[in-house]
Amino acid sequence: MLWLYCICTTAVKNARLGSFAVYLLGVVVRVMKASPFFMLFVYRALEKHGDAALVLRMIRQRYGSMLDARATTLWENWQLFYKSATGGVKFQSASHAWAAMPLVFAAEQLLGINIAEAGFTKVIIAPKLFDLDYAEGTVVTPGGEYGVAVIRESGGIRVKATVPAGCEAWIGGELHREGTHHVLLPDAK
């Protein structure tokens, strides 16, 4: 499984967001565009390879059709309606929580909230805005609600973080206890 993971992540990293081919033992193996379900695995692989910015581009491209359709749920596949092999029109399910990878990406990358101790009693807040200028959200955890607002400004990235009671957060190398904290971080753009 590990060797396939390495081959696939390398192929995904070098791909142009569409389908692509991988050469495995001299044989061309066609790799299809990952389904919404599998996008979490693609995200983890790209993150491991230091290419999380590609994930944001993939979210915009792939989940865009759901937004364009004004969907209020996440679809099982990228297209809600498709033609079957016999030419008929088929319908896919339009409510799949397992397709919610963009929420995981937003919490872990854009807001930068990552677990440091069990139960989220201690987290590391290290947001990455990529090409965005602003991100804001709340992540509900067993330890309480962490709120983060991040804005790009001259001189860096301004972070406003709310840490719940009984919890702690590492922000910019400093430990912050419960309450609201304002920290200016260097812009890693």
TrEMBL record:
Alpha-L-rhamnosidase C-terminal domain boundaries: 112-169
Coiled coil: none
Transmembrane portions of the chain: 20-43
Pfam family membership, one: Bac_rhamnosid_C
Entry keywords, A to Z: Membrane, Transmembrane, Transmembrane helix
UniProt cross-references to InterPro entries, sorted A to Z: Bac_rhamnosid_C
Keyword RNA-binding recorded: no
Protein name: Alpha-L-rhamnosidase C-terminal domain-containing protein
